Amino acid sequence: MIIRALIVDDEPLAREGIRQFLDDEPDVEVVGECGDGASAVDLINRVRPELVFLDIQMPEMDGFAVLADLDLDPLPAVIFVTAYDEHALRAFEVHALDYLLKPVERTRFGQAVERARAMIHHASGAEVTRRIAALLRGLDQRRQVDRLPVKTAHRTYFVPVADIDWIEAAGNYARVHTGGERHIIRQTMSALERVLDAKQFARVHRSAIVNVDRIKEIQPWVKGDHVVILRDGTRLSLSRKYRRQLEERWSAPGQ
Question: Which domains does the chain have, with CATH numbers?
Fold first, then answer.
């Protein structure tokens, strides 16, 4: 079986090094590479590789955000490529996921590929997805923020999370609504969802996240969907998938 691999790293020399190491792995074929997180999400979703070499420290959209944004089930096997990060390395080990430290050593590279090969051939896709999902949940618990940075050409200012009414998708960015103001955040919806308090914010649609305290009512709409009406009169689509999640949230003890 030929294992199709993608290389994701914002450093061209790092991508070249991995590609050269893979020349010695006859059953691994490099089917693409990219240098930023947004391109990685698109490429992985389209190519659906069995293996991804994924850099963690990429600007604007890091490797964890890439995984959170993927629309694949099961997920590919992942070998994380990272500079030293003690917390992340412990998390990889806990969830039996492999990683390479930069600069990557040839012997260690071969060991990581062998482990990935065994996972691809012997573990189910559901098991790989479960391990990665558990990793992301564990990391998310340490990543909640109380304000979001807004970068402009001349300055960076911060929006308090408590002031957010709702957030809408804007390509690979997000538009944050606070009162009558709007702010463009250089993060994807999935990346924001991972750092916002899940008790305070809820996804209501693929393109919208809402501060639950701003919800005034929910009304039936068409084809089984509903509409969320905020206190300021904003109307947002609520898809069936996310409606179930809201219902579970409000039916849970203590909610």
Answer: 3-140 (3.40.50.2300), 149-251 (2.40.50.1020)
Q: Look-up: residue for tokens 């790293």? A: 9
Which positions ≥6 away from 96 have C-beta within 8 Å? 131
Output b/e per residue, 52-73; b: 16+ Cβ within 10 A.
bbbbbebebbbbbbbbbbbeee
HSE, CB side, 13 Å, CA atoms: give it for residue 58. Answer: 29
Q: Where are the alpha helices (H) located in 70-188, listed in sequence order?
A: 86-94, 106-122, 125-140
Q: Report yes or no: 226 and 220 within 8 Å, Cβ to Cβ.
A: yes
Spell out the per-residue pLDDT of the chain, length 255, in tens: 899 999 999 999 999 999 999 999 999 999 999 999 889 999 999 999 999 999 988 877 788 888 888 878 889 999 999 876 665 777 788 787 899 998 899 999 999 999 999 999 988 888 888 888 888 877 765 566 788 888 888 888 899 999 999 999 988 789 999 998 999 988 778 778 877 888 899 999 889 999 999 999 999 887 777 999 999 999 999 988 788 777 776 665 555
Greatest pairwise CA separation for the chain in angstroms:
61
198 to each of 168, 187, 190, how far by Cα in Å? 17, 17, 12
Return phi, psi of residue 233, to 5°.
95, -5
Tokens of 23: 């020349």
